[in-house]
Amino acid sequence: MKIQIKQFKSPCGELLLGSFDDKLCLCNWTKGKRKELIAKRLQTALNADYEESESEVINETVRQLEEYFGKKRQKFNVPLLFAGTDFQKVVWRELLKIPYGTTVSYGELARRIGMPKAVRAVAAANGANAISIFAPCHRVIGSNNKLVGYGGGLEAKKWLLELETF
Question: What is the pLDDT of residue 151?
Fold first, then answer.
């Protein structure tokens, strides 16, 4: 099987969308340091290469992203496939619980998964998230309420948070 991929131009940067086995496995920024690491991890975990093509999941993802960017959608309902360690998956599933328009700190996220001392590990898992926006890692901020770390860059993170709060 192949990971079907398609590029999507969002108002705050270009994304690479990917589906595998009728689930969204990739919504990642095309710029930045982590894109190669995420691509390699995803392809290794799924034992599949990329293939430029469309799928029902990608088409639905595009539709829902357009609604989100048009302020007509606050929740997504595309089936997701997380490819990572068990710990990463716990963190990513917790990201899904952060409501639209709100933020939490890395420390709070660590507390929510029952591992309050694992702040750095939570931050690393957050940075390894391959399904940006859908698993809303942009809603995680520093304990001092500052924007820190984001695969799409801090400008994209700021843009997404402003979209959700204004």
Answer: 78
Q: Which residue has the tokens 């029902």?
A: 56
| Least confident segment among 28-32, 45-49, 57-61, 90-94 | 28-32
Region 136-153 average pLDDT: 87
Residue 140 β-bridge partners: 104
CA trace torsion 141, 34, 158, 64 (10° rounding) = -110
Q: In angstroms, rounded to a whole number, what is the distance separating the alpha carbons of residues 88 and 124?
A: 9
pTM score, whole prediction: 0.93
Dist. CA 7–CA 123, nearest whole Å: 26
Active site residues per annotation: 137
